[in-house]
Amino acid sequence: MQRLAKKFEVKDSDTEGEIAISPFRLDGSVRIGDDPLRGGGSIDLQDPTHSWRVNVPVDESGRFGGSMWQTDVVGGFLNATGIS
User: Fold this and answer.
1) 45: which strand partners?
2) Maximum CA pair distance of the chain?
3) What separation in angstroms does the CA of 15 have from each of 4, 5, 6, 7, 11?
């Protein structure tokens, strides 16, 4: 999950930019109502501009996570068996 996207404006002259990497831990869970997702699966996480995407496993208790660099908004798509 260690990916980071940042927009830079490119002008006619030389362009310079700075990216600061500040790792943090993402701890998430998938719930159906009040109950955790059982049976595992995976979640595809991505940034709002779709410049990166990573597949993260969801454990038998519905938990997922890992070290991340991207802050702000991150979206996800759940892949799991046995749910409709």
Assistant:
1) 54, 76
2) 55
3) 19, 17, 14, 12, 7
Which tens digit of pLDDT belongs to each residue from 1-51? 677 777 777 777 777 778 788 888 999 999 989 999 888 899 999 988 888
Spatial distance between the Cα atoms of 48 and 16, rounded to a whole number of angstroms: 23
Higher pLDDT, 57 or 9: 57
| Residue 6, CB-side half-sphere exposure with 13 Å CA sphere | 11
- CA–CA gap between residue 30 and residue 57 (Å, rounded): 11
Of how many residues is the chain composed? 84
- Backbone angles phi and psi of 63, in degrees to 5: -95, 150
Q: Is the pTM of this model over 0.85?
A: no
